[in-house]
Amino acid sequence: MDFSLGEELEAVRDLAREIFTDRATPERLREVETSPDRTDTPLWADLASAGLLGAVLPEQDGGAGLGMAGLAVLLEEQGRRVAPVPLWPALVAGLAVAAHGTPRQRTKLLPGLASGDARATLALEEFGPADPLSPRTTAVPDGTARDLPRWRLTGTKAVVPAPDGARHILVTATTDAGPGLFLAEPDAPGTTWEFAETTTHDLSGHLTLEGTPAEPVGTPGDGTVAEVVRHAFVALAAVQVGVADGALRYAADHLRERAQFGRPLATFQAVQHQLADCYVDIDAMRVTLWQALDATAEPFDAADADRAALVAKWWATEAGLNTVHRIQHVHGGIGVDVDYPVHRHFLWGKQISSTLGGAGADLERLGDLLTAGTVTS
């Protein structure tokens, strides 16, 4: 497998790194954490004007066609600076509509997403030990509207990321034909929101649906939900690689500068072993991430892609949390100071480690795939 990025992806990485480094400063992060919607809107506009939001979308929809590989590069740079913009839910939603939406749905959502004028988000999680591939939220057909089948959604979605400012929501729900993906409006009849602050200081929303009208994206039971969940797993893994790598860089700088007993802390063997473990874990996270991206590139085998995505997510969940925990520990007392930058990396790593299920849930799903030898949906 070729791990080199290539010219286009290197350009995305370099431009994203420059923007995030310039804009996502610790001072700016503190400012956004106390804002009403907890999203850095000017940064989002900068990413759009630089073409980074549209870069992942297909060329036929005005993008550069870089897909999940481009998104992974962008998300890793975001994670490195823990920049408060809802990239992964918005762009995974955009890729789903680009791949499975009708021409009208693509026209409705994708130009605004690429320009930064309109965001989308994903409603994949539910309360309790719910498998995102088997949502408890239900969808029933309700005739047609504008020559499109119309459905009604009923259920509760938990921790919908960054709903404030989102114009569209992609909701997973179970139908008689299997799980389906549906496009709904956040203020549609039958929607009720309860906003909740997350570990990372983002504002999420618990969404209650009571007969909410929605349009299908793709056909229920056709594997669209499995693809979206797979992409979400890979996207979360990409963010976590950046979060862990950014935290490690803070630790290296801190230990070089701080001395004890007349020696830099970086020269103590116990500390070196801790950071060596972090380095190895981050390398494994990055390798499994790109293995998953390679497995999901066209043409691909769905079973192989699902297994690779779960392996990447498990490494991001388990090793990512271990890394940010070790790094906070080697910072000593300053590591738990909420005004010190590395604390944000710990919070991000902690939240990502439980999004769409923790390490135990990942291993259970992976075990089911390995023993069944087929994709379950």
Automatic annotation (TrEMBL):
Kindly indicate whether the keyword rRNA-binding belongs to this entry: no
- Could you say which EC number(s) this protein's record lists? 1.3.99.-
Q: Where is the Acyl-CoA dehydrogenase/oxidase N-terminal domain?
A: 7-117
Tell me the domain of life.
Answer: Bacteria
- Which cofactors, if any, are listed as required? FAD
Q: Report the top EC class in one word.
A: oxidoreductase
Which residues are in the Acyl-CoA dehydrogenase/oxidase C-terminal domain?
Answer: 234-348
Q: Keywords assigned by UniProt?
A: FAD, Flavoprotein, Oxidoreductase
Family annotation (InterPro entries)? Acyl-CoA_Oxase/DH_mid-dom_sf (IPR046373), AcylCo_DH-like_C (IPR036250), AcylCo_DH/oxidase_C (IPR009075), AcylCoA_DH/ox_N (IPR013786), AcylCoA_DH/ox_N_sf (IPR037069), AcylCoA_DH/oxidase_NM_dom_sf (IPR009100)
- Single GO term (MF): acyl-CoA dehydrogenase activity
Q: Which family does it belong to?
A: Belongs to the acyl-CoA dehydrogenase family.
What is the name of the protein in this document? Acyl-CoA dehydrogenase domain-containing protein
According to its UniProt entry, this protein's organism is Streptomyces griseus
